[in-house]
Amino acid sequence: MKQLILLLSALFFTNYLPAQIGILKGTVKDSAGNAVPYANISVQKTKLSTQSNEQGNYLLQNIPAGNYTVYVSTANYLPVSKNIEIDATKTTEANITLSQKLNALKEIVVSGVHSIAGMGHIDEVHDGVIYSGKKNEVLILDSLDANTAQNNPRQVLGRIPGANYSETQGSGFPSNGIGFRGLNPTQSIEINTRQNGYNIAADIYGYSETYYSTPLEALERIEVTRGESSLQFGPQFGGIINYITKDGNKERQLEYTTEQTGGNYGFFNSFHSFGGQVGKLNYYSFIQYQAIQGWRPNSDYRQITGFGKLTYDINSKLKVGLEYTLLRNRIHMPGGFDDVQFNKNSDTSYRARNWLESPWNIIAAKAVYKISANTSIYLTSSYLFSARNLVWKNEDGGPGSLDTINPTTLQYSNREVQKEKMNSLTTEIRLLSNYTLFGMGNTLAGGIRYFVGKFKRQGGGLGTTGSDFDLTLLDPHYEYDLDFTTTNIAPFVENIFRITDKLSVTPGFRYEYINSTIRGYTTDGNTQINSDGSKNRYIPLFGIGLQYKTTKTTNIYANISQAYSPVTYDQLTPFAATSKIDPNMKDASGYNADIGWRGTSHNYLNFDVDAFYLAYDKRIGIVQLTDPNGNPYSYRTNIANSVSQGVETYVEFIPTKLIHKNNSFGNISFFNSFAYINARYTTGQYKGNFVEYAPQTIERFGLTYSRKVFSATFIISNTAKSYGDASNVVFSTDPVAGIIPAYTVMDFSATCTLKKNYNIKFGVNNLTDTKYFTKRTDEYPGPGIIPASARSFYIGFGAKF
Fold first, then answer.
1. 380 membership: H or E segment, kind and range
2. What SS3 state is found at 789?
3. 278-313 burial string, b = 16+ CB within 10 Å, else e?
4. Of 2-6, 134-138, 207-211, 496-500, which gets the smallest average pLDDT?
5. N or C: which end of the chain has fewer CB within 10 A?
6. Residue 396: per-residue pLDDT
7. Cis-peptide, bond into residue 783, ω within 30° of zero
8. For residue 786, with 0-12 CB atoms within 10 Å meaning exposed, 13-18 middle and 19 or more buried, which class applies?
9. How would DSSP label each residue in 236-248?
10. What percent of the chain shows pLDDT beyond 90?
11. DSSP labels for 144-208?
12. How many CA atoms lie less than 13 Å away from 279 in the CB half-sphere?
């Protein structure tokens, strides 16, 4: 009986003992370490749930001991789940990091980007780089209707306010150039051009022209950061463009994509890509063949572009990658015009024997090591080995000097041969660390870049009298033969100090050491001038940025950063007989400043409005002078100091999403990209004149309609007049100097998706067949006026397997 009483008593008291329960707490933050308020937190197999407070903290009590899964979700972020164990003897802590997402028109999701339909801005911290307080844009390629087969800049980069293009790809340049805020757009020489984070230009300090451009079909996104990027990436005035290629499909071992596009003027583009995920290995590769007869005689070209990358997750902390890029091309250059020739007939050619090739090779190795949950190291090392070779008619006399057969010899005149060879190694190592100070999360980003480059330039060689591509030398002696080297070491650091949940301050510093050498000779008439010199530069650069969150999806940003531009190799050597060089040119310096307001409202409005100020001292440019015989010639020198100031606005609105969430009619969206740029010289004999290639207004309006499997976009682009040199002359017998008239161009493009994995793309470039040009050049591929392309049509078929 005693035993029975004891057993019943034990059962009775056990039922009334306190349950074994625990407490769960933690903080919800984004990838930049910012608190995420009002996130929804729930515990699997229970009815317990809560929201994070304004500091991102949450607390859940009375959870029975055991193993659970916690789910965290909120608007504009990817949902996260985490396994936890509740112990009744202590408080369990589970901190959650969320990645922001983009829901674009075609359901493209990109972490760390704020947008509604194809263009937006980058989060405070992304891929190891601080963007807080900086003016930046991101373009999501698969969300745009655009002529990607022909790399039409208006239809893609045209959304970026103030983007000014050098549309010369069909007349001798391998790619179109871009410039911002009154900077020279030719071959993107004022921009730090990168692919997947590493440099693709020939020489970032000695020869910054870009001859390779990633095919748009291969891109996931394009990241653009203005001049305040100088502290993280280098001191270029124009900022950075970073072309991010696609990754292999992580859900399939093999995915094959093809795009076949044809058009008038004999255009043909064949693009093929392969990608996938095999275990811990992700891979992506593409090959593109492109050819065209050209809208002008003697403007045909052929090129093959190839790329491959491997990314391997060794473990949860270490990821490594290897990439290779290849370009092979042969370009027929039709030459330039003087004003009379252009106005008479811009679709002809007065040069039939000018050719260029620019074989390009880049190998890159990358690694990301996660030291802890808050600290990571990013390593990127790239080796570029490339060349540029051309053979062309000696340009004495400019474009007015026709290339004809000599009636005495019954042959053409001898052409000139030029050869350039570039080799460079660039290594960047970055450290990103999130830490807490005075109860606030802060972010430190620092690192160092090491660059060494060699550049060999030979020109004025005596070529053949033939018409085909032929680099044969009849005399081994060049008019100039120069060897340049550059060594650059640049440590840098930036830190986001979060003063409150809304306000942050980001000071930064960069120190540039640059050593440049020159060896070789040039000739002046019959005199050979030998060069043997070395120059060291030590340049400290400072900057500071501010960011204030006005709402969860909008913020005010402001910054000021110093910039610097050394004299480059090409600026020190005349390319043709129509120009002369100031041998005492000085390096340029200055700073960029911005203040703006940007953000999104729900899923129907995206905006960015900012004012900018760019001071550019000792600006290098071209002026028109007259020799003792009264003949005009162009002269490259430090013209004066200049200032570019103005306003940039971008508005993207989807009214149908505001009115109806599920509209059977489809969606209509439009964007307006506008820039007012007042770029003038502030000192010297040209004080008050406009800076060359600086139109005062650039405006683009785009309208898109999409419904189910069909979408179409119409874009109208208007660019104000600008000038070819600092004198601002309207007309000159020297075609380098003169006005670049205002122009308006319209483009149309459409996409129709068939059975999910197939698509048809078609469109018209330059719909109204506007006759215009964007470039006057004193060198190749002119000299003179280089006309932009006439109206063209295209249609393409794509498939994915």
1. strand 375-393
2. coil
3. eeeebbbbbbbebebebbbebbbbebebebbbebee
4. 2-6
5. N
6. 62
7. yes
8. buried
9. -TT-EEEEEEPPP
10. 53
11. S---TTTT-HHHHGGGSTT-EEE--GGGT-SS-EEE-TT---GGGTTSEEEETTEE-SSBTTTB-
12. 5
> Is the pLDDT confidence value at 575 over 60?
no
- 70 three-state secondary structure: strand
Contact in structure between 634 and 725 (CB atoms under 8 Å):
yes
d(CA 66, CA 46): 12
Nearest to 717 by CA among 679, 673, 677: 673
Please tell me the distance from the alpha carbon of residue 482 to that of residue 20, in angstroms, as a whole number: 81
**Cα 1 from Cα 710, distance rounded (Å):** 85
**Confidence check: pLDDT of 144 > 70:** yes
pLDDT at 176 over 80: no
What the block records as the tokens of 116 is: 């509604």
C-alpha angle 615-617-618 in degrees, rounded to nearest 5: 155
**Whole-number Cα distances in Å, 77 to 39, 111, 781:** 9, 8, 49
- Tell me the average pLDDT across 195-207: 85
**How far apart are the C-alpha atoms of 144 and 273, rounded to whole Å?**
19
Task: Enter the tokens of residue 233.
Answer: 């990436």
pTM of the model: 0.85
**Torsion angle, CA of 28/31/511/224, rounded to 10 degrees?**
-140
Cα distances from 454 to residues 138, 356, 627, 686, in angstroms, run 33, 21, 35, 36
**Which strand (E) or helix (H) includes residue 421?**
strand 415-437
- Please report the pLDDT score of residue 395 as a whole number: 65
pLDDT digits (tens, 9 = 90+) for 429-457: 999 999 998 888 899 999 999 999 999 99
Whether 99 contacts 194, CB under 8 Å: no
Whether residue 551 has pLDDT greater than 50: yes
Lookup result for tokens 């950063």? 561
Asked if residue 4 has pLDDT above 80, the reply is: no
3-state class (DSSP) for residue 460: strand
Block residue for tokens 């995920």:
277
Query: Residue range 622-640: average pLDDT?
Result: 79
Cα 266–chain centre separation: 29
133 vs 121: CA distance, rounded Å = 11
